[in-house]
Structures are given as C-alpha cells and as structure tokens.
Amino acid sequence: YHYPLLVSNGYETVQSICEDQRYVWLGGDHYWLHRFDPATEQFESFGPEWLRSSTNAACSITDILQDRFDPNRLWMTLVYRNPAYPIPFDSRLVSFDKQSKQFVEFPCYGKALYQDSLGVVWMGSTGINRFEPESGTCIHVDYQFEMNGRMVNPLVRDIEYVRDGFLLSSAYTIGRLNSEGAPGKAIHVGED
Q1: Cα-Cα-Cα-Cα dihedral sign, residues 134, 91, 98, 49
Q2: Angle, CA of 26, 111 and 8, to the nearest 5°
Q3: Distance CA 92, CA 170 (A)
Q4: What are the tens digits of pLDDT across the range 19-51?
C-alpha cells in the first residue's frame, strides 16, 4: 500500500506506528500524533495543548501502544528537550483519548512501552517503570548488571513479554525480569 506524503511544519520524521481497527497512528517529531485513514487517504494531526503553547520544538512521540482493554485509548512516550534538567532529554508517559482527542500526561518516565494482561503499562528507562492505570501510580524497578567490574544501569530500549517474564534490551545487554518485575540476571552482556 502506498501512503500519501505526510507534511507537518515543512517536514516530519515518523518515530512510531500503531494500527487499530480503522486508522494507522503515527508518532512524529514536533509533538504531533498523526491519524491516517486508509479509506480516505487523509491525515489528521493532534498535539497536546501544554506543548503547543511552548517554544520547545525538540519533541517526539517515540512509541505508541493501543490499550488492550480500552479501544479509545492510546499510550505513548513523549520525549522532549527540557532545559531544566541536567539530562538533555526528558520522556513522559502520555495517553490519548481517541473520542475527546485529549492528551493526559502521567508522572512516569521511559521510552519503550508494553502493556501486560492486567493492564499495567511497563516503560523502559534506566531500569523499568511499572505504571498502574487504575491507581495512577508509577513504581521504578532497578535493572543493573555487572560489566567490566562495575555495576551498570542501562537505558532499556525495548520490552517484550516472553513465557514467564520480560525480556529487556539495551545498548549493552539482553536481560530478564520475572512477571512481577523483579530483576533477573543478564542473558547477554556486550563489550563496553
């Protein structure tokens, strides 16, 4: 299938893609969430109000996930430059309601997303964060391993549930967490 050109603010880089029963959702730079309708070949774009009024243009939606239990909700990670923090980029968990077209930001940080069969949203960060949508609580779980005689807490770039636990990938390792989020040992550790 050939998709028509997506142009927003002169150019757009697509960082993530998610498909539901009707639309293809694209996460782009400059905080935009784009909805593509294959039936009409039209795009509609949405952005959080709190960022539209900001002069902060260094912002991307880096992961999109369809909620397993609510067909009207998407989960996404919003990564943006935040000069108030010593780390150059900050990331947030955000939900998008497809009916109201409203974004809600949550106090949970990370990039990679996974939602388990209980509805818990897991986010890769320096470790892993467990977000409970019902209570709105976010719990951080450290994920460390030894590399060249020192402990390293890597940035988790992807999360997948396999058999009885999670597989996590980072720049240096593939590791495991059990189904409750307790750290296991690294399966593979690369060179520094």
Answers
A1: positive
A2: 30
A3: 19
A4: 999 999 998 776 688 899 999 988 898 887 766
